[in-house]
Amino acid sequence: MPETAPPRSRAVLLGVQLAGVSDAEHESSLFELARLGKTLGLEVIGRVTQRRAKLAPAAVVGEGKLRELADYTGGTGVVPVGPPGAKRRAGVDDDAVSEPPPEPAADASRRARVVLVDHELSPSQARNLERATGAEVLDRSAVILAIFQRHARSREARLQVEIARLAYYAPRLRETGGRDRQGGGIGGRGAGESALELDRRKIRDRIAELREELAAIERESGTRRKRRGGLPTVALVGYTNAGKSSWMRALTGSGVHVEDKLFATLDTTVRALHPETTPRILISDTVGFIKKLPHDLVASFRSTLDEARECELLVHLVDASDPAFGAQIEVTHEVLASIGATESPRLLVLNKADKLDPDARAGLAREWPDALLLSAKSTADVATLRERIVAFFERDHVEAELVVPYAQQRVVAEAHTAARVLAETHDQAGTHLRVRATPEVLGRLREMLK
Question: Does residue 354 form part of some domain?
């Protein structure tokens, strides 16, 4: 008999619609959180939402919604008074401090074991939710970090994710009952240092080690970028799952990993545009963006995002079939601004046009007249984008005639590398080249002939 896949852990969503947030924005955010949970391997079985001016300081939502949430998890729905594991005071009646036991579910196996919260939680809020629900609580940042940790493949990506993960969890450490370390010994607890302080010091030391190792890798990446200096570069940017890897594969003919999941690609890949041009145009695929992307992740992936900051053209890909793509465009603009990539020219591509009906396509064409409405699955659309990229880099090119003496044939080789050679003939004077290139390249070739 074929093996059956193990059942996925079940999760329930918790969201608060704050003042100023529209119904559409709230629904889109919860839908996205559900997709994040699915990417993490969780089955979302329900959700609990509430309208509030701000998050409840104790447990995000009010008492009624907290009990509703606990119905999914089998918890009490009540935040216990006092620290976890605290003993009852002598002389106090048991009934005065006891918590109501959870009602047994009809099917305990259907209970949610994880609560996904569509907000960033303080350590106390997360702890109170866990005690009231009896389930693991993950806020949006924790979910994204877990996905990044699972999808990181290269050494650089693993280091970046680990730094962000440690920075996220360091302030969320707390003392556990029944543990006491004795001081003394190398690396042991110092005088007056609690076990919690020792844990945090070890995390700070570990982050410092990881940053040193990452800095060495970043220097190597910077060296590789310098070697590519002078070649035109394009960066594919956009919201996660907008189709960047699909376009990378279509434009370069490379076997880039493509998967219909959020954050399927974390590592930067650089390939030449195919069919190749002269000079070659390099295309780089970057990590996807998302709303409320943890700041530590943006900081850790800054070296990876340098590809977007230092390129000459940004191709901003958008999933036009997503009803919330307008908000996703704004998120991408915000992240690009945070890394200093606001000055680079941009080409907006409304992707996944194959999923749209003719009326929707016509409406988008009217609303976004300067954008390209394309699909990576269409050969004609791939050719259209390639032509636009090539035309962008050739917009300032001029034609010129060069006569290269036979004693200086290295200039011919350089011309074939840095310019487009339109014609090449030979006579007694040397090699005659008719080239098309930027004024800077032509100036460099003429300087080599002096």
Answer: yes
Same domain, 318 and 280: yes
Structure tokens at 416: 């074939």
Residue 346 contacts residue 316 (beta carbons within 8 Å): yes
Q: What is the number of other CB atoms lying within 10 angstroms of the CB of residue 138?
A: 23
Instruction: Give Cα separations from 435 to 8, 53, 423 (angstroms).
Output: 61, 65, 7
pLDDT band at residue 267 using 50, 70 and 90 as cut-offs:
low
Is residue 117 included in any domain, yes or no?
Answer: yes
Give one DSSP letter per residue of 29-65, joined into a string: HHHHHHHHHHHTT-EEEEEEEEEESS-BTTTBS-HHH
Same domain, yes or no: 49 and 15: yes
- Residues 44, 64: Cα–Cα separation, whole Å: 21
**Total structural domains within the chain:** 4
Q: What CATH number corresponds to the domain at position 242? A: 3.40.50.300
Please give the model's pTM, rounded to 2 decimal places.
Answer: 0.75
pLDDT single digits (tens) 357-403: 999 999 999 999 999 999 999 999 999 999 999 999 988 889 999 99
Q: Which domain, by its residues, includes 59?
A: 10-81+108-147
Q: Which tokens go with 335? A: 């992240």
The span from the CA of 177 to the CA of 412, in Å, is 75
